[in-house]
Amino acid sequence: MKLFNLPIARLRFPVKLGMTCGARMTCGNTITRCIKLGMTFGAIMTCILLLTSCFQKRAIQQSSAMEHTEKHTLDWLVGDWKRTNDDADKSTFEQWKKESLIEYKGTGYTLQKGDTVFKEHLRIIKSNDNWIYEVTGVNESPTLFHFTEQTANSFTCENEENEFPKKIVYAKEGNLLEAKVSGGEIEIEFLFSPSQVGND
User: Fold this and answer.
1) N or C: which end of the chain has fewer CB within 10 A?
2) In angstroms, what is the C-alpha Rg of the chain?
3) Distance between CA 101 and CA 69 in Å, rounded?
4) pLDDT for 94-145, tens place per residue?
5) Neighbouring C-beta atoms of residue 47, cutoff 10 Å
6) Quick check: 108 and 77 in contact, CB under 8 A?
7) How many domains does the chain have?
8) What span, in angstroms and rounded, lies between the C-alpha atoms of 184 and 186?
9) pLDDT in tens, 9-33
10) Would residue 149 count as lying in a domain?
11) Domain shared by 102 and 41, yes or no
């Protein structure tokens, strides 16, 4: 049996080389191989159509992956922040850096008369498509808060097992960052503005 005047056994060879989505072969190279193998115009056009379909599928998948990543970004949190509603004799800071697409690291600390009176290490990491807010340096072991809500410029994370806080909320509006920690009837608000660390 023949297809486009070419034996099927002969057609199968170039298909394996260049017609699958996993093949790393350019369209031009594939057509050249087809011509060398004596394929008819119709068979070559079939190869081109298969390649086009493959490339379009890849483009759609890559676009979808980029949209998914951008939708869940926390880049708005990155930067150096200084608390503006602190006690008069204290200065509280948070610093956030982006380590990768799925990890952000931060440090929170409070200075009083030049001494560090409080410090915690923060990390936000994505695991199984869910964000987790991790706090170390306060309790004996890391405390984990799981995201329960997220928008383009805010998130809420919770841990009902933790004594305090049970809920943490971050939100950015304009150039300002707001954080709230709460548990039971207690709620503490932290208002931050951009900071030039070392100059404040």
Assistant:
1) N
2) 28
3) 8
4) 999 999 999 999 999 999 999 999 999 999 999 999 999 999 999 999 999 9
5) 20
6) no
7) 2
8) 6
9) 333 434 333 444 444 444 455 555 6
10) yes
11) no
Alpha carbon distance 78, 103 (integer Å): 11
For residues 88 and 179, membership in a common domain is answered with yes
Phi/psi of residue 61, nearest 5 degrees: -65, -40
pLDDT score for 13: 35
Residue 113 belongs to what domain range?
75-194
The C-alpha atoms of residue 112 and residue 89 are separated, in whole angstroms, by 6
87 part of a folded domain: yes
Tell me the two tokens of residue 74.
């926390």
Residue 199 lies in a domain: no
Contacts of 95-100 with CB under 8 Å at 24 or more apart are: 95/197, 96/122, 98/74
Question: Which pTM value belongs to this model?
Answer: 0.66
Distance from C-alpha of 193 to C-alpha of 175, rounded to nearest angstrom: 7
**Single residue among 29, 47, 71 that ends a domain in this structure:** 71
Q: Of 44, 71, 98, which residue sits at a domain end?
A: 71
CA 45 from centre of chain: 40
- What is the CATH number for 178? 2.40.128.20
Q: What is the pLDDT of residues 28-70, one digit of tens each?
A: 555 556 555 566 766 666 656 665 665 565 544 444 433 444 5
If one counts every other C-beta atom within 10 angstroms of the C-beta of residue 192, the result is 23
Tokens of 138: 């306060």
